[in-house]
Amino acid sequence: MSVPLVLLIDALDECKDRTRGSGSGPGFDVMEERSEIEIVIDLLSRMKELRVGRGFMGVRVFLTSRPELSISHTFHIMSPGSYRRIDLQDMDPKTIKNDISMFLRREFENIPGARSLKLAGR
Q1: Which residues have CB under 8 Å from 88's CB, separation 6+?
Q2: Most buried in the list 31, 37, 79, 117, measured by CB within 10 Å?
């Protein structure tokens, strides 16, 4: 069993986004004006089709963004079930705080000499 490829894209909404004609060729199946962010999202959605040998490659894409209208619209036109949306503002603040705290503790433990420091909350 192969290990899935994990791709993380943070702050997609902060990318410069120019509109361009989509042209033709791999990844472009519509002849209309599309933004570069729309093209990126479309290509990422097609990653599930990647093949390795005789089987499909397991790919997980984690994408973070503010809820920009153009980005939300691009996801709404995708096939249902091809993505899962999680809105942080709808989550329990305790869960978010605990996840961030756990992440920071692990990261600080990897800093040379940090193990001797006392972290708050421990």
Answers
A1: 96
A2: 37
SS3 72: helix
**25-81: pLDDT as tens digits:** 555 444 456 788 888 888 888 877 777 766 666 788 888 888 888 888 888 888 777
User: The whole model's pTM is what?
Assistant: 0.57
Degrees to nearest 5, angle at CA 37 with 34 and 40: 100
Q: What is the largest distance, in Å, between two alpha-carbon atoms of the chain?
A: 60
End-to-end CA distance of the chain: 38
Q: Residue 76 is encoded by which pair of tokens?
A: 């709404």
Of the two residues 78 and 95, the one the predictor is more confident about is 95
**DSSP letter (8 states) at residue 35:** E
